[in-house]
User: What shape does this take?
Amino acid sequence: MQEQRTDKQISKGINHEKKLWIALSLTTVFIAIELIGSVVSHSLTLLSDAAHLFTDAAALIISITAMRLGRRQADQKRTFGYYRIEILAAAFNAATLFMVAGFIFYMAYERFFVSSEIHTTSMLLVASIGVVINFISTQLLKAGSVDSLNIKSAYLDSQADMLSSLGVILTAFLIRLTAWQYLDSLMAIGISLWILPRTWILLKESINILLEGVPEGIELAEISGALLDLPGVTDVHDLHVWALTNGKISLTAHIVIEPNAEKEHDLLAVATYLLEEKFNVTHSTIQIETTQCHGNSKLHL
Assistant: This one.
């Protein structure tokens, strides 16, 4: 049976895409502003954040492309559709953020050996614009981040950008008070350290889905126990649970029943309903057996 997207899912995806386009437009404009500001102010923090924003813009383009491809319906060759494209995009975005953080560390290290006067007024002006732009982008993407790892990656990028702008404002004020130019490099490093843990979480979630690992919050033992509690069920084995994309969980299992148990189709309907209501399993394939039939799977639950 091919996996089809509902009209509601398609409509939600189009709505999310519109918000991504707005976020991309705002980010592109601010990249130009920040590049000019970094030249005028001689601020490494602004330059590093501009490089980070450039990566974010590329990530948003990838996200939009992934969402468009992901809306394609299942076909004879891809019976589950194109859901995984969104996860590939999220993994790529996370990996790219790691490289950007490394670049910031390198630039900050070099700046410690090269003295440069920072013009704080330009920093404050550019960073203030950045706070407004990134706040708007964050609010646009917040709702969609719950539905999609792809949107979540863009949402986290936007959050990091807003924090970066606030960090630039704080740095500019401190430099004015202390005249210590190296604060610019230290803040650039601090921004990178803030980005890395969140990026690691996103990358880990993406890789887990790509490896068809058990989704977060799902315990195989709980699912097995719930199925065993159904009337007439004596054993559950060859149980596999994975996700096509964020929030779209699939399951396959073999269920052994007593010879005189209720009709198979009734039990199948009850099991399917249980899995969807209690564990949010949106696609399940269950094989009913009257005698245990061991497959090649080593996982026996």
In short: Residues 7-41 form the longest helix (35 residues). The helical segments are 7-41, 44-70, 84-111, 120-142, 149-178, 183-210, 220-228, 264-279. The longest strand covers residues 233-245. The chain has a mean pLDDT of 80.
